[in-house]
Design goal:
499 residues, mainly alpha, 20 helices
């Protein structure tokens, strides 16, 4: 039960912070597009394709290692081990930042001139290099709190960062009249302030962890040995997130890139609760290491079912509601984002369905090497499909390339992850897949009939709920676990309110 309470507490705080953070991010994107226009916003997206490399390329695997080993050390009340892990991880992270930042500063000219073919963006990329430094350190601090399962503090820091980012951006752009790079300077300042707040809020043992002790190199190698395959996995995610935008920045117009990025922002908003569940469940699943297949199979199948149902429900609702939302927030200039978003939904569903497989592979079975190989295959497919399709077809090529690459990667899953795939109850999963296909057909029918978006969305969601009821998709065990999670969430809120 304590594990469920921890998960519930994490869901509460991570959900609140991620949802509010998504609102703040969308608010800033609306304000910036209204202020600078579609083309200038596309330039900012080009800069962020480079900034977002920093959290992945500077950590050398230590964040994944912390999320794997630190919960175990804290569970065993081994503060010596916990301190050694934290010291080693921080040393590696700082070294990565010290190498990456000068490279970004030196590369600002070639990136803006040679790759994106827009030399006038040089100063924007210089500001992006400084922003990347702050973002990398801030992301590391949040990862430490996630590994400690201090979800309330992690949520507060995440919201503080985004609130500062929004507030400082408004101040420098609208108050001081700064140009577009002012957004990047505001982001860097917000990230550095968040790092300081993370240190100030750290528990006492974290402060004591900085006392000199032997074995730093050994612990660092242990973290990197486990986490480096995860860096490649994260690079695959980064490629999926940003490689298409980098190529669109080179081969398409800034206006098209801006419209594509707005659609991508809303897909990321759909991924909010999925990301919350992944972050919260990873430390919990790490405690299942060594459990038998009979113990693991029900958990895996329940998680797989929930993730699939969540993706179908969210995708069906968003298919219809995206039209009035984008028109209201961004205006008629961003109408192409509506169609782009709808074509991204299959990719959203595939990404969501894959999450339980990835979590069990790494955190339960410790098969980081196998996961690395599969993610390298996916990353290669993403690169190849984008390189073939984007230069020739532009935005339609980008929409097709990522969906095709992820779809092909699913074909090799049974061959690469037999240990996880053996846990799958195929009959139940096929029933869920059939329900998802039925909902997809209903969405297409409603769109063909041109019903009002609200009517279409409500009708399709009601039909999906009825379909789940008729197929008895939720059994007694699901409701029991769901009630336990809700109870833990209520307790977490009550405890937080009393504090």
């Amino acid at each position: 039960m304590s594990g469920i309470r921890t998960v519930s507490r994490g869901i509460v705080f991570k959900s609140l912070s991620t949802a509010l953070g998504g609102v703040l991010t969308l608010t800033l994107s609306v304000l910036l597009t209204r202020k600078f226009g579609r083309e200038a916003y596309g330039w900012l997206v080009m800069a962020y394709t480079v900034v977002n490399l920093a959290p992945v390329l500077t950590e050398a695997g230590v964040k994944g290692g912390l999320r794997r080993f630190l919960p175990v050390a804290l569970r065993d009340a081994d503060q010596v081990r916990a301190g050694a892990l934290l010291r080693a991880a921080t040393a590696v992270q700082l070294a990565g930042v010290a190498v990456f930042t000068p490279l970004m500063l030196l590369g600002a000219g070639p990136l803006s001139g040679a790759f994106f073919r827009r030399p006038e963006l040089h100063t924007l990329f210089l500001a992006g290099a400084v922003c990347a430094l702050g973002v990398a350190l801030m992301d590391y601090v949040l990862s430490v709190y996630q590994a400690m399962e201090r979800w309330a503090t992690e949520a507060a820091l995440s919201l503080a960062y985004l609130g500062l980012y929004l507030g400082l951006s408004l101040f420098v752009i609208w108050g001081l009249g700064a140009r577009l790079q002012g957004v990047l300077w505001a982001n860097a300042t917000a990230a550095v302030l968040t790092v300081g707040a993370g240190w100030a809020l750290a528990p006492q043992w974290v402060r004591l962890a900085w006392r000199p002790s032997p074995g730093l190199a050994v612990t660092g190698r242990e973290l990197m040995r486990f986490g480096m395959p995860l860096v490649v996995i994260n690079m695959n995610f980064l490629l999926l997130q940003w490689f298409d935008k980098a190529l669109l920045g080179r081969y398409s117009s800034a206006e098209n890139l801006a419209a594509f990025y707005i659609a991508f922002l809303f897909v990321n908003a759909l991924m909010v609760f999925v990301k919350v569940l992944v972050h919260v469940l990873m430390p919990y699943l790490a405690r299942l290491e060594g459990a038998s297949a009979a113990e693991l199979s029900p958990r895996f199948n329940r998680l797989s079912k929930w993730f699939l149902q969540l993706s179908v429900f969210a995708g069906a609702a968003a298919y219809f509601f995206i039209d009035p939302v984008i028109r209201a927030l961004y205006g008629p200039a961003f109408e192409p984002s509506i169609t782009m978003f709808r074509w991204m939904l299959p990719l959203f569903i595939m990404r969501t369905v894959y999450q339980p497989v990835g979590m069990f592979t790494v955190n339960v079975f410790g098969e980081t090497g196998v996961s690395l190989k599969l993610n390298m295959i996916t990353a290669t497919l993403v690169v190849v499909c984008n390189l073939i399709l984007i230069p020739r077809f532009g935005v339609p090529g980008a929409l097709a390339a990522n969906t095709l690459a992820y779809g092909l990667s699913f074909v090799v899953l049974p061959f690469g992850l037999p240990q996880v795939c053996r846990l799958l109850a195929l009959k139940g999963w096929l029933r869920e897949a059939a329900s998802a296909a039925g909902v997809t057909a209903l969405c297409l029918l409603a769109a063909w009939q041109a019903w009002p978006p609200v009517v279409s969305g409500v009708a399709v969601l009601a039909a999906y709920a009825a379909l789940l009821g008729l197929t008895r998709a939720w059994r007694r065990e699901d409701w029991d676990l769901f009630r336990q999670v809700l109870s833990g969430m209520r307790q977490a809120l009550a405890v937080r309110g009393a504090a």
